[in-house]
Amino acid sequence: MKKKNALKIRRRHSELSYHAMMLPGMIFLLIFSYIPMFGLWMAFQEYAPAKGILGSPWVGLMHFKYMSTLPDIGLLVRNTVVIALGKIVIGTVMAILFAILLNEVKNKLLKKSVQTIVYLPHFLSWVVLASVVVNFFNLDGSVNQMLGTLGMEKINFLGSNQLFQPLLIGTDVWKEFGYNSIVYLAAITAIDPGLHEAAAIDGASWRKRVWHITLPGMMPIILLMAAMNLSSILSAGFDQVYNLYSPMVYETGDILDTYVYRMGLISRQYSFGTAVGLLKSVIGMVLMVSSNGLAKKFTDRKIF
Amino acid sequence: MIENKSISGRIRCFVIYVVVILLAVICLVPLWNIVCISFSSSGAVAGNRVGMWPVQFTLRAYEKIMGDSQFWRSFGISVVRVAIALGINLVMVVLMAYPLSKSKREFKARNIYMYLLVFAMLFNGGMIPTYLVVKELGLLNTVWSLILPGAVPIFSVIMVMNFFVGIPKSLEEAAIIDGATPFQVLLSVFIPCAKPSIATVALFSIVGNWNDFYSGLIYMTKVKNYPVMTYIQSLSVNLEELIKAGGSASALANAAEVSNQNLNAAKIVVAVIPLLLIYPLLQKYLITGIVMGSVKE
Amino acid sequence: MRNKNLWKKSIVLGMTLTMILFLAACGADNTKEPKDGKSSQSGDGAQTEENTDPYGAYEETVTCTLGRQTLQNPKIPEGDSYENNAYTDWVEKRFNVDLTNAFEANDGEDYERQVSLAIASEELPDMMIVGRATLEELVEDDLVEDLTSSYDNYATDYIKGIYDSYDGRCLDSATFDGKLMAIPSTNPDSAPSQIWIRQDWLDKLEIKLDEDGNAAITREELEMVAKAFLEKDPGESGNPVGISFTYDMNGSETLEMQAISASFGAFQKQWFQKEDGTVYNGSTTPEMKKTLEYMNQLFKDGILDPQFGTRTWDDITALMTNGQTGIIFGAWHIPDWLLSNVKSMDQNAAFTAFALEDDKGKVNVFHNNPAANYVVVRKGYEHPELAIKIVNLFHDERVTSKTLKDDAPEVYEYEQLGVDGSVRPLRIEVNSNVSLLNDYGAIVQCVNGDITIDEVPTLEAKNIVGCVQRYNEDPNTTDVIDWARYHSRMKGIQLIQDLTDYDSLVWVSPLYLGTTKTMKNKSANLDKLEAETFIKMIIGEESTDQFDSFVEQWNAQGGAAICEELAEKAQ
Fold it and tell me: Any idea which fold C29-187+370-423 has?
């Protein structure tokens, strides 16, 4: 009993310390995040840099209405969501699988070098990587040469509306899975190895141990990453798409960001861009909060 | 150790090795291609002839880099930036993740803070307002303009918080009973236990700060202040854009002379080397994490 | 109140100006004597504020901040920078000014971003270069200085002569309500889009082109060459491609189908005004439909690259460098920066340039937008005339002075090194509309020995004479630059000269009126519709019979509205 009381008093003091710990970070956020958020007004204005945020004319929901009347808006949203979802699902699965496999590699040198190598593509920008991808997948590329030796017909991957989305998803997974696996590797190391040993002694197979110990142990991080990725479902990777697409595949490859970018080339569209960004943020927030709720309901652990 | 004894275990082990090595090879392809390009003549590069081996081998690109004083200056700026940003990021992450890992009962304002953070992560005011703030603070053209706007990596805070939540309560309570203040608890219990996650966050901070070229383009108004990735980005002369922008014939001709992709490739290679060295260094901490965990329990 | 004062001021100013002009006209000679300007700076300290010496120095050091477009430039000598180099020193010493850079950024998107940030933070540099859209915005919000009187008073006759060579079209584009709000950078005509064909391959296959000798080939000849190159594969690549274009559908002259559409009388993406005042777009004409039908035929025949629609600029560079294709469409200057890649990989490569003629044997061309971009001066800057003085210095004295070597040895050295214009304080070009052929004429005369090298007008032209002479001595030279300069001039500009001599060029003038309200919102969509439809029609995914419904759609989605806005603007 005495112990518990002492703890309670401690707690009150602790709360003050907790606020103190939050303070410096919150100051930074206030200055560099919250104050600039006045810029979100632009979404409801016809912003011109020369007039400033205070002087630009108020247009209300005009940009949002305009967005909804774009002839291609349905297509743009569909492409964006399909590409983004594909990347999230396949990318996450690949990263988790790779982390589990790599964790099984006991040779330290091999483990280190493999991990260092697979995270390399992350450092190369899409401008650079796009040319590598094109060289592989165009009609004279290695992939088509392989198809040719197998006696199959050549495929123009970059010009095919059926294959362009898989190509985007596949190459993005290839670029990012190594880097994404880092966080899952960290999650695996946080699992108590004693659990594995105990299960092994009980005769549980490797597959069973992965399924019943490793995966559940990684679950908080998996959920966190999933929620994070979901919140950016309306961003399908501008740099990648921009460097790989062409009018041939606008039908399946044109996404919100590339469209807004092309609009901006004709005249700087700060307000429209902000409006699209704001909409994306709101949807991201909704998805983030609801996945938090779902996580709480089904796993009894919140994400944030 | 146990699993290696059985035959199925050995087969599994073999399959895993093969798969892992294959994946590594696939990931090595693009960088190897770029390394080959950096050692090839510019004509061969323009002809798209460089594959997995240099064509018309030359060291000229690397000789040029050696003489490019701005490249090394920018390289230095990036090193300074990464070092300072890493320190600030880690302090912020650890300081904020700890209180947030408390339950609402232990820390009443916890959820308010949490939502403020999530909000700041998902919403942003855009380039112009942030620029105005940085300018008003007099940070333009200083390394701080690259560091401070990203001082709090919110995603990392949430991630480390999740690791903190997983640390057994008993450890903390033992420390409190021994008379430790929250700061001491954080330092002596949470940080050592969460080393792998902190190392991960450190990696994110280093990689993110090193790779970011965009803030340099916005906040640095003089080329001499560019960090290395911004400098490299500014080097890639896009003839296509230049001609669309109505570049004159002489400007195009001059640009074509510089736009040797092998030099750019060499710069990318040099700029990636520090990142290559970082991971093995940090991996030490990832491994200690496991040992720590097993000892503690 | 303010306005009234302004009126008074301008009337007084106007009267003084007229008087000065009279005086200047009387003293005819001394207007264009840079040397005099130089001596007067030290001598007459007590000059009045109405001193309009085009090269006059300021008594007290004047500061001037600049927005600078940078470009990777290998030729800046070690130790020099965009902020401190021979060109900036020249301006600083000559006019007693102190130049500093408010910001530097790569030409293009990066620079435009810095301009927007400078405008948004209400700290404009004293002078900077902007595009048409930004200029309109700045003028609308009254942020830039009226340069009318500065131009009238300070620009040298030579500079005025250059702008006059555009029949007012150039200055008009910077004139708002009768006031000159910016100094435009000139953009001389450079048409047509030329077809560069590998001459060494033609020789190898013994193909003779352009039998009638009018420097232009027919579409049939083009097809014949492409087929021969495809069948015989003279580049021995094993994988030849006939004619390749990038997927861009901008109507540009390089690596796009501009030459082909022009041979049908179609001008993609250009706006034209009919006699009744209505405006239409070249992409929506029946001639465009014919172009697409023809392109579709080329695709079916395999003459057009089977990967048409996904090819990027780099892809095509690779195709020609590898000897897979020997037919390249582009402006006269592409040997300098694109075809040079071919030479560096294949020592035997040589090109000949042709134009593509229409059914009547004529070559259809359109005038360029005469203004590329603009120098603006911040509203309230005390010395707006400094902008004009800098233009005088670089585009009159530097070009025309015979004694530059002695007057400004550092600048002369820069010219010799070929340091391009991007390191000048104000990066604009001021060249007369006929400068291309004039300079070329001098080059040819000098190469033929008719005039001495000193008589060649510009330093750039002098350098080219050297390249051409070296090339003539040894046509198998391994020097890529000599090879490139020879081709761009003796083949590229020579083609323009020939077409001009034969009177083959048929000129049309598109409208260049900047962006309209509907354009801002709808253009991205219209561009997408056009690019998608045209590519599909060319590769046969959509029938060209659908062209009319494309035009309907195009009009409905904002095209018609833009035409109306432009018609209104054109009045």
Answer: D-Maltodextrin-Binding Protein; domain 2 (3.40.190)
Confirm whether A153 is domain-assigned. yes
Q: Is residue A148 part of a domain?
A: yes
C172-226 pLDDT tens trace:
999 999 999 999 999 888 889 999 999 999 999 999 998 888 899 999 999 999 9
- The model's pLDDT over A208-259, given as tens digits with 9 standing for 90+, comes to 888 998 998 888 889 989 999 999 899 999 999 999 999 999 999 999 999 9
Tell me how far apart the alpha carbons of residues B92 and A21 are, in angstroms, rounded to a whole number: 9
Q: Provide the total of helices (H) and of strands (E) in chain B, helices listed first.
A: 17, 0
Q: Are residues A30 and A166 in the same domain?
A: no
Cβ pair C314:A131 closer than 8 A: yes
Mean per-residue pLDDT for B142-155? 96
Q: What does the domain layout of chain C look like in residue ranges?
A: 29-187+370-423, 194-360+507-570
SS3 C293: helix
Domain limits at A220? Answer: 62-299
pLDDT score of B278: 85
- Count CB neighbours of B130 within 10 A: 23
**How far apart are the CA of B88 and the nearest CA of chain A, in angstroms?**
10
In a domain, A49, yes or no: no
CB atoms within 10 A of CB C70: 21
Question: What is B42-98 written as a DSSP string?
Answer: HHHHHTT--SSS-SS---HHHHHHHT-HHHHHHHHHHHHHHHHHHHHHHHHHHHHHH
Residues B292, A189: Cα–Cα separation, whole Å: 10
* pLDDT attached to residue C403: 86
Any domain includes A204: yes
Q: How many domains does chain A have?
A: 2
A259 and A185 belong to one structural domain: yes
Considering the domain architecture, whether residues A73 and A23 belong to the same structural domain is answered as no
Chain B residues inside the 8 Å CB shell of A36: 124-126, 129-130, 132-133
Which H or E element spans position C371? strand C371-377
Lowest mean pLDDT: which of C16-25, C150-159, C237-246?
C16-25
Q: Binning pLDDT at 50, 70 and 90, where does residue B179 land?
A: confident
Tell me: do A242 and A153 sit in the same domain: yes
A139 interaction partners in chain C (CB closer than 8 Å): 306-307
Nearest by CB: C120 against A52, A70, A156: A52
Long-range CB pairs of B10-13, under 8 A, 24+ apart, other chains included: B12/A104, B12/A206, B13/A104
Which residues fall within 8 angstroms of residue C275, CB to CB, at 6 or more apart?
none
Q: Domain ranges for chain B, please list them.
A: 1-58, 65-296
A129 & A8 share domain: no
Beta strands (DSSP E) in chain A are: none
Q: Are C332 and C493 in contact (CB under 8 A)?
A: yes
Same domain, A40 and A68: no
* Residues A34 and A74 placed together within one structural domain of the fold: no
Question: Which candidate from A18, A40, A98 shows the least CB-CB separation from B107?
Answer: A18
DSSP-derived 3-state class of residue C97: strand
Count of CA atoms in the C-beta half-sphere (13 A) of C456: 24
Cα distance between residue C429 and residue C273, in whole Å: 28
Pairwise CB contact (< 8 Å): A189 & B116: no
ipTM of this complex prediction, to 2 decimal places: 0.88
**CATH class for the domain made up of B65-296:** mainly alpha
* C194-360+507-570 under CATH 2.40.10.10, yes or no: no
pLDDT for the residue B237: 65
pLDDT in tens, C422-464: 789 998 889 898 888 999 999 999 999 999 988 887 778 888 9
Q: Averaged over C497-513, what is the pLDDT? A: 94
For the stretch C308-347, pLDDT in tens is: 998 888 889 889 998 999 999 999 999 998 898 899 888 9
State pLDDT tens for residues B48-79: 778 888 888 888 888 888 888 889 999 999 99
